[in-house]
Amino acid sequence: MFVRVFFGRAAGNRRRANAQGIQRRIPLSRTRSQLFMTQMDLPRKHFNRFNDPGHAHALTFSCNGRLPLLSRDRTRVWLINALEAARLKYRFAILAYVIMPEHVHLLVYPREEQYDVSAFLKAVKQAVARKAKHFLAIEAPEWLQRLSVRTPEGKVFRFWQQGPGFDSNITSMETLRRQIEYIHYNPVRRGLVDVPGAWLWSSAGTMESGRIRRLIVDPIDGIFPQETACAETESGRPSVGQKDTDKE
Ligand code: NI
After folding, report:
1. How far is the CA of 222 from the centre of ligand 1 (A)?
2. Distance, CA 119 to ligand 1 centroid (Å)?
3. Phi and psi at residue 19, to the nearest 5°
4. How remote is the CA of residue 125 from the centroid of ligand 1, in Å?
5. Which residue among 50, 66, 113, 177 is buried most deeply as judged by most CB within 10 Å?
């Protein structure tokens, strides 16, 4: 019974994922020639790296035009709710995060062998964008206009900077710890707070506030049982069409 409940389901997910070709999925923003080059020029391991099993992912994404759309508690709570929902739905552990005024850093670890980082991110971004669109339509229609762009399909509201953002795979505990520290020190480097724990909107936050909804992160213990197998192979991979503009 235990085996069926816990592994039968996972196997089902894997079959579904294979049927949908999730491992091979490539960002739609790539042109045909870029896709061709990717397949021809890169070793297969590199090609599949984005969703490699057992890897943690450091994700960075920004607001449209790098505007400080996340400087209000209201918007931050939307994001936290979206992260909570996506973490359950896609079975991702969230190991660390920081919400900066105009960008977000996340450290996630997929609990399933087959997973899709872009689907997880899309769910998070869409949920926030929907809330923002609804809110702005009532409270600030001029901002709704300002954040909308003309496309062949009509006007489209864009809360987030386009593109999948920035992703790097992490395969060792040492790098993971370094990445968590980097994430937590974002508000300190910006001069927003003196110590990481003073920033309410990150996993370093220790200050209590009754009105703020906090995201509780998952423990990092034991997430790299295979650590020695593929240590220190990770490297930053800027996504196509968008430079990593966040080096703070
Ligand atoms: Ni940053």
Report:
1. 27
2. 22
3. -60, -35
4. 17
5. 50
